[in-house]
Amino acid sequence: MAPFAVVVLMYKVDASFPIALLTVAGSVGQIIMPHIYRILLDDFHWSGVFIILAGIALQGFPCGILIHYSKDVVDRSGENNVTSAIFDRKLCMDRVVWLYLLNIILIVSTANFEMWFLVDQMSSLGYTYVFGTALISVIGFANLVGRLLGSIVKLKTKSFPAVYNMLYTCPVLAVGHSLFILLQTLDKWMYVACAVHGFAFGLMNVFLPVIMYEFVDNENFQQAVSFLNMAYGVGNLLSNYVGGSLRDLYGDYDLTYEVGIVVSILVTLGLIIIACIMRKRERAKLCLIHQHVLLSSQYKSID
Fold first, then answer.
1. What does each C-alpha distance from 6 to 10, 22, 60, 69, 218 come to in angstroms?
2. What is the DSSP secondary-structure string of 146-181?
3. How far apart are CA 175 and CA 173, in angstroms?
4. What residues contact 38, with CB distance under 8 A and at least 6 apart?
5. How far is CA 279 from CA 38, 59, 234, 283, in A?
6. For residues 224 and 239, what is the distance between their CA atoms, to the nearest angstrom?
7. Is the pTM of this model over 0.90?
């Protein structure tokens, strides 16, 4: 959440592109970390790996200190439009925000199936763990490409609402889930499935926080991001539980990916509803602005 807060402090007018670009860093780690995990496991086993990972996580502490003491340098205007309230009543009462959070929980809980279970799926089919790890890296690289392209799309189309971009991203995720079912016994074609899914996954991770930013703008974005992170956490928790339970019940991951296909379609429909509501709100806002301009012009003409 801290990087998003810093972006909001730095970019007062339109932070949608910096927020999109900020999501790129996570995909770099997804490419590198599976190989690091495998190397560490060979040398240090599980206990040593967790100690090393704890040390890596602690590197975020000095970064947080640096961000905290740099806020006066970042915000030189002395103005801070970001509300300090823990919960904004208007944000909490907005039904569109809660509908959006529900869609995030659904799409995150299913889009992560491949990252959680692909290595186990491949090993159950007779492939090696090294092959499964390589496939995860392909997803990570495609994820990076998707995030970079999504950031460029947002840069070039700043006035185009990000929710519309999700209307094609979710169907591509559904295609990716289906490819993992159809191509799972064709080792070379599995790279294609990983590329498709990883690309859509990258686009999704770019547009989801941008959509939330476009809902609330700078003023309540920190509170909105806390809701966003909560939805991501719930989705990740459900992902491994639902996927693993279905695997234990039916012996393979076909039904798991089929659930992902259905959820992707349902989320697309939910986002269409959200897009229609937001468009209606934007039209009402423009009408109010137009009326205000007309009244101001009438008063000036009288003077």
1. 6, 11, 15, 12, 11
2. HHHHHHHHHHHTTTS-HHHHHHHHHHHHHHHHHHHH
3. 5
4. 129, 130, 133
5. 48, 43, 28, 6
6. 22
7. no
Domains of the chain: 2-74+88-302 (1.20.1250.20)
Please give the Cα distance from 283 to 288 (Å, whole number). 9
How crowded is the C-beta side of 196, counted as CA atoms within 13 Å? Answer: 18
d(CA 230, CA 224): 10
Can you give the pLDDT of all 303 residues of the chain as single tens digits? 666 666 766 666 666 777 777 777 666 766 677 778 778 888 888 888 888 888 887 877 887 777 667 666 655 444 545 444 555 666 777 888 889 999 999 999 999 898 889 988 888 888 888 888 889 888 988 988 999 898 888 888 877 888 999 999 999 999 999 999 999 888 889 999 999 999 999 999 889 988 888 887 666 777 787 888 889 889 988 998 898 899 999 888 999 999 999 999 999 999 999 999 888 878 877 776 666 556 565 555 555
Residue 102 in contact with residue 230, Cβ under 8 Å? Answer: no
Could you give the CA distance from residue 167 to residue 148 in angstroms, rounded to a whole number?
18
Q: Using an 8 Å Cβ cutoff, are 154 and 210 in contact?
A: yes
In this structure, are residues 231 and 106 in contact, taking their beta carbons and an 8 Å threshold?
no
Is residue 165 within 8 A of residue 222, CB to CB? The reply is no
What is the chain's Cα-based Rg?
22
- State the maximum Cα–Cα separation within the chain, in Å, rounded to a whole number: 84
Q: Which phi-psi region, left, alpha or beta, contains residue 186 (left: φ > 0; alpha: ψ -120 to 50)?
A: beta
- Residue written as token pair 């840069």: 155
